[in-house]
Amino acid sequence: MAAPTPPRTDDWWRDAVIYQVYPRSFADGDGDGTGDLAGVRARLPYLAELGVDAVWFTPWYLSPLVDGGYDVADYRTIDPAFGTLAEAEKLIAEARELGIRTIVDIVPNHVSDQHPWFRAALAAGPGSPERELFHFRPGRGANGELPPNDWPSQFAGSTWTRVPDGEWYLHLFTPEQPDLNWAHPAVRQEHEDVLRFWFERGVAGVRIDSAALLVKDPALPDFVAGVDREPFVDQDEIHDIYRSWRAVADAYGGVFVGEVWLPDAERFARYLRPDELHTAFNFNFLTCPWEAGRLRRSIDDTLAEHAPVGAPATWVLCNHDVTRTVTRYGRADTAFDFATKRFGTPTDLDLGTRRARAAALLSLALPGSVYLYQGEELGLPEADVPLDRIEDPMHFRSGGTDPGRDGCRVPLPWEAEAPSYGFGAQAEPWLPQPADWARYAVDRQSGDPDSMLALYREALRLRRAEPGFGDGPMAWLPSEDGVLAFRRSHDLVCVVNLSAAPAALPPHERLLLASGPLHADGTLPRDTAVWLRG
Ligand code: NOJ
To answer: Which residues span the membrane (predicted)?
Structure first.
């Protein structure tokens, strides 16, 4: 039975559970091996039953898919591999009827090299107004054979590519993703129009890709080691852009979530001032190792940095760019760091799964909203994608040392006994699924009260039905070393044991939910969490 959808206020985003759909790998409706909107529409009842408030779709626009859709050729067209604009409109409306809001993904820092603007810029040549929409520059060196500056790409290698007429263009990611020039009024105008285009189609929110990278120091200076931040990160003028975006969103009641990777808490919080973005992803929490002290500090820092600007925190364990949670938590190093990803890292999946279950209860009990990446509710591990099937440019640009991000993007298993585990009618999806994934299939987990899916369904049901969850205050309770214990309103208590010893639970009236069995004497085993009504 689907949980009833309670009426939500305009502030729904302050405590929502938002499910991230990677459309290529969610469900394949037309049987061509690639996930699509038809697949999502058919599975909306699954999302309603899971109990999520909103769905964020990673880019579904026309794209050569060089970077999984983050290379957009047209923001107003759905890629034919995924469906049509009419289908997207139906999907948004159908989801809304089930109480699920839609968040689309806008990629303002760059476009695809197949975008009409970039093609026109290439054709028009040096000095043309078309080139002013991007960062084209002559090279350095006697014959302009050296890139204009030394900026390193986010995906390894240089950020500059030379075109046949001798000029170079800037791309913080792959050469197929030229950066837009945000000092140009047409770039600003176009993106505000794109925002309106999607708000008018009923979307409730927009996720902003690479949100801190848009503005570059106009001098494009070399990166001087030791300065506080790179000349392409978090430039002050960026806030002006988000202030005018906020005015657009406010006209529709829309909300933003920014992809803001910034170590400096004060700089991060500037994006969340009341006239800028509503929320931003909490990467501090996502990258934090499974250690009580570090997690507690991350939670405290998060709440402290959000409080002055009045923005709710978000709690994120995983997304389409990082190692799956059960895998990460099953390794010797439980932190996430792009720089240390390697093939063949030993992993204890039972341990990782136990911790991921506890982490789910932890993040769902913290004040604010929660992001849940597709497949996390199934406890999917990072898949080992065979070398000859890897598609992610991060792998290739690293010279092959970084396995890339395909391992967390493998198509979902829905039915244990069906070809491609029910992902689609075709046996071979775009990325191969591991041979032992039948056990993770939705139909198998649905009948098992001890499954990860059952835990998530029950946790989300309680989070809606019981008081004390979502936005609001929290207070730490005294606890033993390695134990996190905190109280929310209505005497809601969450205890997580990250120590090696069993932990005593505080006095309580009711056990709402446990991530695993308690010891016979009522103590909490290691790597286990509970929700109590105290
Ligand atoms: C962040 C996205 O999450 C990632 O998948 C993408 O590769 C980069 N931004 C570039 O758009």
So the answer is: none
Distance (Å, rounded) from C-alpha 399 to C-alpha 413?
31
Neighbours of 429 (CB within 10 A): 22
Which ligand 1 atom minimizes the distance to the CA of 155? 7
Please state the pTM of the whole predicted model: 0.97
Fold held by 473-533: Immunoglobulin-like (2.60.40)
CATH topology of domain 116-170: Oligo-1,6-glucosidase; domain 2 (3.90.400)
* pLDDT tens digit sequence for 238-268: 999 999 999 999 999 999 999 999 999 999 9
- Does the annotation mark 417 as catalytic? no
Out of 259, 376, 402, 527, pick the active-site residue.
259
136 vs 167: CA distance, rounded Å: 6
Query: Quick one: which of 248, 272, 247, 250 has its CA closest to 260?
Result: 272
Side by side, the strands of the sheet bearing 510-514 are 475-476, 483-487, 492-497, 528-533, 510-514
Percent of the chain residues past pLDDT 70, beyond the cut:
98
Do residues 80 and 127 lie in contact, with contact meaning Cβ atoms separated by under 8 Å? no
Catalytic residue among 67, 79, 176, 209: 209
The residues that bridge with 513 in the sheet, in sequence order, are: 531
